[in-house]
Every structure is written in structure tokens, then in C-alpha cells.
Records
---
Amino acid sequence: MFSHCNHKIEYNKTQNNRYIVKLKDIKNAINFLKEEKNYNFLVDIIAIDYLDFKGHKEKRFAIIYLLKDDKFDNLVILKAYLNEDEIIDSITDLYKSANWCEREVWDQYGLIFKNHPNLKRILNHKEFLGHPLRKDYPITKGQLCTKTDDLMDEMTPKLKAKGYEDHDDLMFLNLGPAHPASHGTIRTFVALEGENIVSAVCEIGYLHRGFEKSCENHTYNQIIPYTDRLNYCSAILNNIAFAHTVEGMLGVELPIRGQFIRVIIGELSRIIDHLVSLAANLVDMGALTNYWYLYNPRETAYTLLSKLTGARLTNSYMRIGGMTHDLYDGFEADMKRCLEDVQKGMDDSLSLIEHNRIFQDRAQNIGVMSAIEAINRGWSGPNLRASGVAYDLRVNQPYYHYDSFDFDIVVGSTGDVYDRIMVRFEEIRQSIKIINQAMATLPGGNYKVDDHSIILPDKKNVYNNIEGLMNQFKLVYEGVKVPAKEYYSSIEATNGELGFYIASDGSGTPYRVKVRPPCFYAMASLSDMIEGEMVADAVLDLGSLNIIAGELDR
Amino acid sequence: MAVAGEEAIFGDSVITTKLDSAISWARESSMWPYIFGTACCAIEFMSVASSKFDISRFGAEVVRFSPRQADLLIIAGTVSYKQAPILKKIYDQMSEPKWVMSAGACACSGGFYDNYTTMQGVDEIIPVDVYISGCPPRPEAFLEGLMQIQKLQAKPSKYLKKRAKRDFKGRLDV
Ligand code: SF4
């Protein structure tokens, strides 16, 4: 792989696309991959602390880079081992997306990056001491935060670079975290000249809930409810992404009926997520009526989901190796009604905005992101597609027979707020198409894998014979045993590539889980996007990226 | 029933009552909530506010985004340690009489996030009047919570005065 590189790179190929590289060579290796082999897309940077890993002989920490090439077909995983006192070369000059990733690694693990422009905490608060994802940090050790960061340490140098020595003519304003347009927990700190944003700094982490640490003391199936609360607007897609990854590690595949059910329910989740995102975005614009038109179909979907899963929002429907139960009688009619409502809501809303001059003026050419830039920043999903890049994991790496359905990848041309909104509208239409096809061809048979080391036995076995009882007890108590390995897999979630990198030590509890949250990368770009725009546009930019704090901050 | 006083003369066009009850009737029927929505529970609140569950049936649809204009603080979502000083600041900016509703497992107790970053219940920093269970609570539960607050508001003004002077010391009060 690296034989033509100018720099000598010491590496070890462990599997097909996995390389162990010496820490000192890691930047050269990545640079080579980017410049010579077109690995332009940084998927994620992951750190692991092997302190408690049985039989681990290498240095304590590992830093792992996931890269994809410009066709998005090939994934390369580079890994380097290091000790706490060793310093990693920052790759922020190669990928803009690396900026926040490296900050997160520093925050959670205390690993230091050389030449990083601003290596400060990102998820935890300023007064936090220590690095919580290290294995020797106790999970319940909370630390009180008494004061909010004023962010001037980031703002002042930014203004200076723009030629503002004193700040007398500027007005500083906090958009969020408690602001109606900040969608809950996102803080954008801006310096204004009139209504124009001169400079902006974003702060996240207000909804950091310790998902990744919590995974390390729960069994695989216990993690499913936690995944619901990543992107809580489309809980089931997160369930699927997680279960899909673990199933990949176990080497099992769902029966076709199970796969189709995942497609159907997954697409329904995508639809209702897009609905709420569009509804909120249009409210931010002042178009309140759209909110009622777009939000109310969600209620029909909630009724269907409550019947199916028992919960409206946080459904926890999936399990490792399948799902809690099959579709219910009358599901088809309910689904039909639900899709009709969605279609109607969407048509009503579009009739209000599609040819509406005010809407177009507000949304067109605002927050423009070019394709090259979007890839460099790690964007994916509808946001990236709006910039004109046809990257959709359902097509690029089809799973669950997505290649057998007839649907289009929706792309935009300009990459502005307008495109991002319209791409989402059209994606709803495509999802409806997929659901209709899947419902029409839904095969019979089992919906979960037939393997009692993964799936709970039937209740009648549990109550009537000792093997069934033991089986149930072991699965609940110890969890599904997953072979010791490290594995990455991803699906196309509502916001884009939602991936899980899981390191297993062979037990029923993962050793390390890292989420690749798609909106983390979009959010990292916001401050650059809004500089030079007006405050009112900044609100639309944020809304059009569909930032969901649960997924962003984890 | 024999009717006396003004009501005997003017009939249905006059109602006599106590000033206390008149004020609390007005208060109960037009709460102005501030939504401190941080997470999944806030999405359920969106349902409460939209047409199917329709919070305006209880007179509480005028959602305020300035705490200075609100008398009901609804905390819907997880509150992390990082978020805590902000929540406190917002609470402090509201004027008496003010009411606090903690909605959902996370706001009440940290929910299933028993870890280094999540505050184990907002009552560690501000006083709470009504706790709503659920993860997230169903919209009906939000409405039930609202009615409980209305019951508190119906109490005589003596109670309100005492309430405003109550002694609460949270972890961020130094
Ligand atoms: S209580 Fe449940 S639904 Fe509500 S914020 Fe917490 S995790 Fe989300």
C-alpha cells in the first residue's frame, strides 16, 4: 500500500484494509493516502485505552484513523499504538474535519496533538479534571461546573486575524445554548457589526451524556435503548446501525423478512426525522403553518410505532440478531394511512413554499457549501448530497437488499439552505417509494436469526424446561458473547453516515464503542459558514444542517 | 337556592368571589411556559404543543423564550453538569410566583445516565414543584403535570408569599 511513498513508512498489514503504522509515520501515511490515492474523506478518529484489556502487549493507547477514498468504496483503517506521553502529529491541515475529532480525543483520553490550532476540551466543561474515557476514570465520578466558558480565548485571536484589535465597535451575542433557534443545546457565540456576523465560535457538549462510557458497562442488548437517544428523532435507525454492526462482528445475517422489516421501519424513521427537521427549519424562518402540516403526520407514525414497539419516540425495537417481535396484524393498513398523511402534509407544505418568493429569497444562496469543501469537512447524508455529491450508503455499499429497490439518490446543485431543505423533501418521497416496494414484496418466514447464543428463547421454553431457562439467564445476565475483534460498520442514517467502531474482548460487554455521529462534522463547519452572513441567516444554516444534540454530543 | 346581594339584583352578569381566587383563576388559565428543552423529551413537548394534544386547551400555549416573561419553567431533557449553570441562571431570571416542572426521567433523576457528565436530577440546583415520570413522558403526562401546577396555583396568596421566601440551597448556591 505504502510502497510508493517518498517517506519510509513502517507498517504491518493485519487484515485486508487494516494497517498498524508506527506513530511517527502516521501523518506521512495519511498524507500519502490523501495525495496519491485520493483518500479524501476522513471518516473518524478513534482512541482506545487498553489498560484493562486482557493479554494486551502493546503500548497503553491506540489512535485509529478511518479514511475513505473519493468513490467512497474503499475504507482504510490505520492504527498506531502510543503511550500517554507520546505526541501525535495533528492532521488538521489535511482534513478540516480532524479539528474537532482531535479535540475530542484530547478531551476524553488526554492524548496530545502537535500543531493543532486549538487543542481544548470540547464535550466536557472547562473545569473538568482528568479524562473520562480512560479506563481508570470511574464512570460515576461527576464534576460540578460552576461557570460557563466565555469563549473569548477563541474569539480574540479570530478577531485579531481579521484585523480587529479592539472590540469597541462590535457587539457580542450568544445564540444559545438556551435559545429557541439553537435546537436545545448548541451555543454559537458571535461578534456582530450591525447585523453582520464578523466572527463566530461554536461550543458544543451541553448534551454530553456519556454514551460511550455507559456502553462499557452494559451488555450489547442493554445498549440498544441508549442508541435510541442518539438521534432521538429517528430512534430506530440508530438501533439498526448498532445492531447491524454487532451482527457483522458475530458474522450473522438476518433472514430476509427481518431485513425487510428493518428497511420499512428504518425508512419510516427517516421520514419522520426529515419531517421534524423541515418543520423546525421552516418555523425558524417564520413559516409557522408548515409546522402543523409537517409535524402532525408524525402523530400518525407515533400511533403506528406505539402499536408496534410500545413507545412513541424511544422505540428500542431492534435487538442483536433481529427485533423484539414481528409486525402486527393490520400493520399494512396502518402504514398505508401513515404514508398518505405524510404525503398530504408534505404536499400542503410544499404548496406554501415551493413558489414562494419570500422563502426562496430567505433560503437560496445562504450557507453555501461546495462539494470539495463538504467532503474535506467530513459531511455526509442529505447535507453532503445537497452540495452535489451522490454519496449514499444505501447505494454505495448496499445492505439489506437496498440494491433491489428502485429509488434515486437525491442531490442538490448549490449546497445552500434551499438545497438542503429540498433534498430532504425529495428524500421523503423516495423513502415512501422504498416502503411501498418493500411492503409489496415482504417475504414470510422468520424475522430473527435462529441462534440461541444470540436470541432469547421462546417464553414457553423458559418456563417449561431447564435448558431454556439457563439459556435465557445467561443471555440476559452475561449478554451476547461477541468474538474478540475490532470492527467498523455504518449505515445511512437520517443525517448521513452513522457508524459504530466496536472493540470487543470476547465478553458480553463491549470494551469500547465509538459512534461516528454524522452531524458532529456538519456542526464543526457552522462557525465558518456563518461568518460574513447575517444573524437571521445563521439561524437558518443551523436548522438546515439538522443538528441533533443527542447525536452530536453523545 | 336563595340568592342575596349583588347577584340577586344583577343575575348572572355578576359573580362575587374572593380577590385571591380571581387572581389565581387568571393565573391558572394563562401560564406562560419557558421550555428548557435539551433532549428527546423536548421532542415530545413538540407534540404537546401541536394540534393533537394542544396545550392551549389549558391556556399555556404562549411559550416564552425569555425567562423574564415566563412563570412556568418546564425542564424537558437531560441536564449535564455543563448545562447546570445555565439552567440556574434562567431560573433566577424568572420572577415570583414561578413554578418548575421537571419532565422525564433525566430531569428528575438523571435517568439511565448514571455517569460522569449527567446531573442526577435538576433538584440538585433548583427547587422543583412537579415531577413527571417517563422516558420521555407521553404528552398526556405533560398535561397532567400542568394540571398539578394549576392546583398549586389555586392555593391562597398566603401560601404564595411563604413560597417565595422558601429556603432552597442547591449545589450551585454558594
Ligand atoms: S428522560 Fe428519556 S426521553 Fe427524556 S431526555 Fe432523558 S433519555 Fe431522553
Note: The CA atoms of residues 343 and 429 of chain A lie 8 Å apart.
---
Amino acid sequence: MVGDSDVVCVNHVSKRYGDQAVLKDIHFSIRKGEIFGLLGPSGAGKTTLVKQLAGLEVPTDGENVIFQQRMPSLQIMKRIGYMGQSDALYGELSAKENLEFFAAIYGLKRKERLQRIPEVLKIVNLAGTEKKLVSSFSGGMKRRLSLAISLLHEPELLILDEPTVGIDPVLRKSIWQTFDRLKSNGTTIIVTTHVMDEAEKCDRLGLLRDGKLIAIGTPTELMADTSSQSIEEAFLVYGGAVHEN
Amino acid sequence: MRIKALTIRILRQIFRDKRTIALLIFAPILVLTLLHFVFNGSNYEPTIGLVDLPEAVSNSLNSSEAGHFQNYDHMKEAKSAIEQRTIDAYLYMDGSQPSLVLEGSDPTSNRAVMSLLQNAFNSPDKKSAKMDIDFLHGGSELEQFDYIGPILLGFFVFFFVFLIAGVSFLRERTTGTLERLLSTPLKKSEIVFGYVIGFGIFTILQTFLIAAYAIYVLGMYMEGAFSLVIIISLFTALTALTLGILLSSFANNELQMMQFIPIIIVPQIFFSGLFNLEAIPEWLSWIGPLTPLYYTADALTSVMVRGTGWGTIIENILLLTGFSLLFILLNILVLKKHRKI
Ligand SMILES: Nc1ncnc2c1ncn2[C@@H]1O[C@H](COP(=O)(O)OP(=O)(O)O)[C@@H](O)[C@H]1O
Ligand SMILES: [Mg+2]
């Protein structure tokens, strides 16, 4: 299952916090250029898993290998863009100042910065708001700026924890169009979500429940396998609910 | 490069918040100004009742300009006057011995009465009793304000940097920006140094303004070099910053950060020399040398009141550096909780 074209390999990963087992023997891999969705209810362990992939946490057992290197590795972290569950912005600063700061942290040169900042602002539809203070932004604008920051250094792997929370359906659609564009440029994207209809847009899905990977496959495979009409139904079947029909 | 970006960002954040800037600069200025007027105000002139005193005594007293006198024929009048607090004390003859009754509830007026009477009764005209008095440090013009001023200067630097740095690092953690920073290849030491340089620059500015105001506008006693005052403040800020960041890890919100003030900041004042250190009981006196402000206060007093140079403060600076290094080390350990490498 773990091959050379795999960008991310999660190798029998478990994580415990004290007595609580948050991740239980998770094993899967993600191929280059795919949009991989981690779907699961709140508390399933999605954030814990993607934090490990971003290099912020380490597993209790097993290992995460990204670009053929064991995480955490500062070398690999340069090639990853991470957007956490919270917006992680400086409210006292303007959108542009936030972007400039993180661009410098990622080591972008002045020239690259001048070029990339307008680009990412355009991608997330925030062009024209760069002078505004972030504290005056709406929830959706903050989320998009946060996304823009994770795109600054053109990462090969993008890890997004609930990227569309608090964003209206129109914008959500435009963000997913962005993901498709990035994917066509060869970027691998991992998104976590607990919204089922969003899950259908992923190339492949991993269903997570109580720290266990209960199923993995394309949305069509998962629905066919459980003879369900929707991902939501499929999730319930894998989760052990009795099929009504 | 990355450290520079962090430094610029921190300074931008500080200067964008106009209210906090005003607090950091004007609160110390206001407090120092008030203290200046409280301690350097005109001396209290007591009113003393004289009950049926021999002419010679009352004449010699009446010539004193340090107080006011009220003559009474009977004790009863003096007693009712002192109860109504129109006089601070009265003097009467107990046989051949002059006796003094003080109102007693206000130490300032007690002291004023006593020193007035001592001056009046001892050596009014006897030239032989006069002596020349020289001061090794300071001088007769050194007021209480000049002594506590340097200590307060150090305290303000420590207090504000501790609080502002602690709160900004706390916010960094609670808003998730710390996590985002740690998801980049940024090293943990780079974060700490970015903070140190950002707040260092700010402290130089703050100290410069406050010290210049105290010395040149309020006329605070200043024997030594201004540059040494800035250097001491800088090392004080370094200690306060690293301690503030460290303790912010143990607070979940701004209010909990404030709770460190009575525990960490206020006790340091008692051991900083603001109150006479000799008065601290033996079994408590070991605490002083464990508090950073103790060394700041000692160094600032040395420079500002005694006019000493590098030689005498280097030890204090080294100890403050030691505290800072310890806190930086602990900070990097605590940050391990957020990212293992
Ligand atoms: N640092 C931590 N310490 C203790 N428990 C944690 C910690 N982080 C997460 N957990 C627990 O792990 C479980 C999964 O959390 P999380 O990964 O955030 O789920 P999700 O993102 O799917 O909602 C939760 O029960 C949470 O309480
Ligand atoms: Mg989560």
C-alpha cells in the first residue's frame, strides 16, 4: 500500500493523551496531487492527526513519513502549508502586514513577497482589502486570509483543518474551486471536515471515528460499498448503524 | 531575517495599540510626578500649645519659624484644643520639668513636633555645638524622592514589560498564531530572540522617555551616566520579558496573567530597597537575592545616587543575565510542549 508516489504515509500511528487513546493504529497513504478528505464527527481525532502531519505533534506509536522523511522535520515543514482550526492572525495588523510577516517567516525574499502577496490575495478573493486591519474582518474573510497565508510559499502539500467553517455556500464553492486549481498544479491537499456534502468533492476520503480509520476510498467507492445514496449514509453504515433498507 | 520579521511585527503591534502605549509612557510619568510632589512638598509645620510656660522658654520657642504656637493659661484649654485637633501637641511644666503631650495619630506631625522642640531646646546659640556635615554620597539636598525614584524606574520597566510581553505571548498561544509559527521551519530560539529584540527596542525608548522626564523635568538626583541607566533597564526588561513569557504558559487568559502581579511582582517591591532592607526580619531576608528587581534597584541606585560606574554594576548585570538565561532555557523547554523539535 505504501509506494514511491505516495506523498504522505501514515504508518500504524497511535496517540494517547494520558489514559485516552485519541488515535488507534491509523494506517494509510496519500498520493501526489490528490485532495484527501478526513471526515469524522467532532472529537474523532482529525485535528490530532493533521497536527502530526504538520510536525506539531508526535505519535505515541508508529510514524508519519512525508516526502520520504520521518516527521517532524524542519526540512520537510518548509514544503508544507498548514492552516489550523483557528484563524491564527494578528488582529492589530492589516491583512498585508500579516501576509508580509508570514512570508518573511517562510523565508520568502523581498521580490518573491511582492509578487506572491497580491497573487494569494487574488486566489482567496481578498484583493483590495489588504490595508484593512484584520480585527475589522468578518469571520469568512479571516478564514480566507488564513488560507492565503498557508499558500504564500507555494507548498507542495497543503494541510487544512476545517478550512470552510463559518464560510457561506457561495464562498465555499469558490474555495473548493481554488483547491481544484491548486491540485491541477500538482499540489497535494489534505482537508478535514465534518460537513458531509463537502466530503463528496474530495478525490478520496478517510472516515475517522473515535480515533479509528473505519473506511477509506473514493466517495463513489464508499457509497457503492455500502449501497448508500450519500456519504452521510455510508458513514453511518461503517460506523455500525443498521442499514434501514 | 526571520528574527527581524518577528521584531518588526512585535513593534508594530505595540505601537498600533495607542492606549497601551499611553499607559506604558504616561502612567510612570504620572506616578513619578505625583511622588515628586508628595515627597518634595513643603514640610509640615505643627501647631503647639504652650501652657503657662516660663517666659524664657516661650520666647525662645516663639522665635522658631518651623511651627506655630498658641499660648494657654490652663491645661483644660489645651486639652480641648488637642482633642479638636486644632493643635498637634502641647507643652506644660511638670514641676520644673517641661512635659510634652502629642496628639499622636499622625506620624508626620509627631516627627515635626519632636524635631522642632529638639532644635529649639538644644543649642540655640551655642556656636560650639555646630559641626560641619559632609556627605559621602548624595547630599543634604537628597530627598526621599531621589532615593525611591531609581527603584521605581526599575520597577516600571519590569512591571510593564512583564505584563505586555506576557499578554502578547499568551495571545500568540490562544489565537493559534504560535501554533502557526511552529508549523513553519522557524526555530524556537528564533521566536524567543525575536521577542527579546522587539521588546528590547521598545524598552530603550520607554526608559529613555521616563528617565529623561524624571531627571530633567522633575529634577531627580542623577550622579552617574545616563547610558548606564538605559543599560540597566535593558537587562531588567530582558529578565521581565523572559519571565513574562514563561509564566504566560501557565495562564489561560489575560485575567490569569494579571493574577501573577500580586504573586510575582508586588513581593519583589518589598525586597527591592524601597523599604529599608535592614528592617526585613532575618528569616525572610534570603528572598531578596532571589528576586531580579533587587539587583535592578541596587544598580540603579548606585548609578543615580552614588554616581558609580561600570565596576559596581557589572555584578548586578551579570546576575540579571543569569536570570534571563535561566528563563530562556525554561521557555524553550516549555515550547517543546507545542512542538517536539
Ligand atoms: N493536548 C491534548 N490533551 C488531551 N486530550 C486531547 C488533546 N488534544 C486533543 N485531545 C482529545 O483528543 C480527542 C480528539 O480531538 P481532536 O483531534 O481535536 O478531534 P477533532 O479535530 O476530530 O474534532 C478529543 O477527545 C480531545 O479531547
Ligand atoms: Mg478538530
Note: The longest helix of chain B spans residues 144-174.
